[in-house]
Specification:
With 138 residues, the protein is α+β, with helices and mostly antiparallel strands. It has one domain: Nuclear Transport Factor 2, Chain: A (Roll). The protein has 3 helices and 6 strands; from the N terminus they run ααββαββββ. The chain is globular and about 55 Å long. The N and C termini lie far apart (45 Å).
Length: 138
């Protein structure tokens, strides 16, 4: 039987690593946190799948003036099998567009999958609080 508490702690550590990679604006590093076929779903975009597409979107986002991204996990639950987990929490995204400051926030969900002994993001999704016209477009 897997030690589910230890698995939760490992995922929490990976979430902190992911947050640090976003602070460093390391798009390739963020993308490598995903599985090879991982998906990123963000408002107003088609789903991004795979390291290259995910890195491309993060790279564009990191180029936006005064952009910052933060998230705070609320809960992590690991399946009894020890190879699948979900994390949910809240995020905040701040940026400047056309001279105006915007802040987006809302809930997020990340689905983690253990592949060859390593936890990887299989899916992540952000739910925006902004009106459609205000969404970040890169």
């Amino acid at each position: 039987m897997p030690d589910l508490r230890a698995e939760e702690e490992e995922i929490l550590s990976l979430s902190r690593q992911l947050l640090e990679l976003t602070r460093q604006k390391d798009a390739a590093g963020v993308a490598k946190m995903y599985s090879a076929d991982g998906r990123l779903l963000v408002p107003t975009y088609q789903p991004m799948q795979g390291h290259d597409k995910i890195a491309e979107l993060w790279k564009k986002m990191f180029e936006i003036p005064e952009v910052s991204y933060a998230f705070q996990p609320i809960a992590i639950e690991v399946a009894a099998s020890g190879d699948l987990a979900y994390e949910y929490g809240s995020f905040t995204l701040r940026f400047v567009r056309s001279g105006s400051r915007f802040e987006d926030s809302g809930p997020y969900v990340m689905v983690w999958k253990k592949i060859a002994g390593e936890w990887k993001l299989a899916l992540s999704i952000l739910n925006s609080s902004l009106e459609r016209e205000e969404h970040l477009t890169v």
